[in-house]
């Protein structure tokens, strides 16, 4: 009897008959698969609950009146449903103007950061130059060292900005760049913006895993370095560039440190959220005409509402870009 006939007869047997023939191995395998599936489900459910539960709480609180916040009977479902918290938060943050400004700045900053980080990452991956390991160690330090440690240095540098002493030599004074967007754009163009070290590292690792035969073939066909980079390497790096651009946009959108330091005069959603509680106190004082103590619960309610209003544009962005983002992450994971 051939193996095909044996397999056909074995497949026609019931589960318990096949388990008996296997000496109980089939039942043990089935039980272990079910146990692993249950454990996996519990872990994934727990992780999803930890991520979603705070957001669901914020959504519930954002539709509550101040009376509901102190009602012990009201837990998750508001008794007096209201959208007034959203109108108040939008007014306190100057939401429409803040969203427009944040969108423009986040897009331009993210595009500038990814453009320069792609060039630097490609250089680290493909070229040899003096002190290469030293400069890459500096990139790692940019990732490890918190930006707060150089805050005072950045303030002094852009308060008394000079280029090789030429400005002071010609005009007798340095340039005060504080209060403008230019310092942040200069930092981003110099790969010292928000999370730039991480982008350089990710892009460098990606380029290192692309076979060098592609470039060699392009050089043989007569392409120069720049043309090879633009026509051959950039299309190969679309997954990692897409990922880094989305990271850069989201982190810039929610950033409070660099935005407050360099873009403090510009109305942004991140800085507006940071000042929303103080703005609420001033608003109530202006309405009542006297200084009033704001309850902690109501302050947290307006803060939660403002937080949701900041998250909503990012969720919309993800809904439109989820396919490209997931494909880029999966492709990056395979190549790295």
TrEMBL record:
Q: Which residues cross the membrane?
A: 38-56, 98-122, 134-156, 237-254, 297-321
Database matches in InterPro entries? MetI-like, MetI-like_sf
The domain of life is Bacteria
GO terms, biological process? transmembrane transport
**Places the protein is found:** Cell membrane
In terms of CDD domains, this protein maps to: TM_PBP2
Reply yes or no: does the keyword Ion transport apply: no
Keywords assigned by UniProt? Cell membrane, Membrane, Transmembrane, Transmembrane helix, Transport
SUPFAM superfamilies, per this entry? MetI-like
Q: Which GO terms describe its cellular component?
A: plasma membrane
Domain ABC transmembrane type-1 positions: 99-320
Q: Which family does it belong to?
A: Belongs to the binding-protein-dependent transport system permease family.
This one is known as Sugar ABC transporter permease protein
Q: Source organism lineage?
A: Bacteria, Bacillati, Bacillota, Clostridia, Lachnospirales
């Amino acid at each position: 009897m051939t193996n095909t006939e044996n397999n056909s007869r074995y497949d026609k047997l019931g589960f318990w008959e096949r388990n008996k023939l296997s000496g109980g191995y089939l039942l043990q395998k089935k039980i272990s698969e079910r146990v692993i599936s249950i454990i996996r489900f519990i872990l994934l459910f727990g992780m999803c609950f930890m991520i979603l539960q705070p957001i669901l709480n914020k959504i519930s609180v954002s539709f509550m009146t101040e009376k509901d916040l102190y009602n012990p009977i009201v837990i998750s479902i508001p008794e007096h449903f209201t959208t007034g918290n959203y109108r108040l938060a939008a007014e306190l943050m100057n939401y429409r103007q803040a969203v427009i400004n944040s969108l423009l700045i986040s897009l331009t900053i993210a595009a500038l950061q990814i453009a320069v980080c792609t060039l630097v990452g490609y250089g680290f991956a493909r070229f040899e130059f003096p002190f290469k390991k030293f400069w890459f160690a500096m990139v790692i330090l940019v990732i490890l060292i918190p930006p707060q440690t150089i805050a005072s240095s950045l303030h002094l540098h852009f308060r008394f900005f000079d280029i090789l002493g030429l400005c002071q030599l010609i005009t007798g004074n340095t340039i005060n760049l504080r209060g403008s967007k230019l310092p942040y754009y200069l930092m981003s163009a110099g790969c010292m913006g928000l999370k730039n070290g991480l982008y350089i590292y990710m892009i460098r690792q990606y380029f290192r895993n692309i076979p060098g035969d592609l470039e060699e073939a392009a050089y043989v066909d007569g392409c120069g370095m720049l043309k090879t980079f633009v026509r051959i390497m950039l299309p190969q790096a679309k997954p990692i560039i897409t990922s880094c651009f989305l990271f850069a946009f989201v982190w810039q959108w929610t950033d409070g440190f660099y935005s407050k330091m360099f873009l403090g005069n510009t109305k942004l959603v991140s800085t507006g959220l940071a000042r929303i509680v103080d703005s609420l106190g001033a608003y109530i004082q202006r309405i009542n005409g006297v200084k009033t103590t704001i309850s902690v619960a109501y302050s947290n309610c307006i803060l939660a509402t403002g937080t949701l209003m900041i998250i909503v544009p990012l969720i919309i962005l993800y809904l439109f870009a989820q396919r490209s983002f997931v494909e880029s992450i999966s492709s990056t994971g395979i190549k790295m």
